[in-house]
């Protein structure tokens, strides 16, 4: 009888110990809600830095030359001049929060960005991966990865065409 009681006690302790383990992966968290609000703000062109820590660093398509939160918002404002409209699609968005073995909290998201170039009304769709590290509810690091080549090539082509048209209309010396 003592063995059965001891066995039940050990099983109960193991079961309760497993129940108290921290969540290492989820698709529903306050951090994910913060990122979703950040995406909604981007779509609405509300460039609010309140969700970022003052020392946060943002990296877009690079691991060098980080931007501060205000520099990242300026980056978005400056690139907006190229588009008559732009934003992340509302469908097919995926978000996850993970806690690494080192105890770091990260939110990853996979989104579809859509835009229309202002110069020629060309529609562009680009898959984007964004990842955010959180400390005490604030973003301390942001990484964004996407392939901008279609946009860059189109803008370069339009600029070359504009330069050729300008040269044709200028009088020769």
Number of DSSP strands?
7
Question: Which value, in Å, is the CA radius of gyration?
Answer: 24 Å
Give the helices and strands as they follow along the chain: HEHEHEEEEEH
Task: Please bin the fraction of helical residues.
Answer: 25-40%
Shape type: elongated
Distance between the termini: 109 Å
Name the structural class.
alpha+beta
Q: What average pLDDT do the residues reach?
A: 89
Model regions low in confidence, pLDDT < 50 over at least 5 residues: none
Largest sheet: 7 strands, mixed
Structure annotation, total helices: 4
How big a fraction of the residues is strand? 25-35%
Keywords:
4 helices, 173 residues, 38% helix, alpha+beta, single chain
Question: Would you write up a description of this structure?
Answer:
The protein is an alpha+beta fold. It has 4 helices and 7 strands. It has helices at 2-19, 30-43, 69-80, 149-169, and strands at 25-26, 52-60, 83-88, 94-99, 105-117, 123-135, 138-145. Strands 1, 2, 3, 4, 5, 6 and 7 form a 7-stranded mixed sheet that branches. β5 and β6 (123-135) form a beta hairpin. The longest helix is centred in the C-terminal third of the chain and has 21 residues, at 149-169. The chain starts with a helix and ends with a helix.
């Amino acid at each position: 009888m003592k063995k059965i009681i001891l066995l039940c006690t050990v099983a109960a302790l193991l079961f309760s110990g497993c129940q108290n383990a921290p969540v290492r992966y989820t698709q529903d968290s306050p951090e994910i809600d913060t990122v979703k609000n950040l995406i909604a703000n981007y779509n609405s062109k509300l460039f609010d830095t309140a969700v970022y820590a003052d020392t946060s660093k943002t990296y877009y398509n690079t691991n060098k030359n980080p931007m501060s939160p205000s520099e990242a918002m300026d980056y978005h404002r400056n690139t907006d001049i190229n588009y008559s409209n732009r934003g992340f699609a509302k469908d097919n968005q995926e978000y996850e929060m993970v806690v690494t073995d080192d105890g770091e909290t990260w939110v990853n998201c996979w989104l579809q960005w859509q835009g229309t170039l202002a110069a020629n009304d060309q529609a562009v769709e680009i898959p984007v991966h964004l990842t955010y590290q959180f400390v005490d509810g604030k973003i301390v690091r942001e990484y964004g990865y996407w392939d901008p080549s279609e946009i860059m090539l189109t803008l370069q082509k339009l600029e070359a065409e504009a330069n050729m048209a300008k040269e044709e209309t200028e009088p020769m010396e």
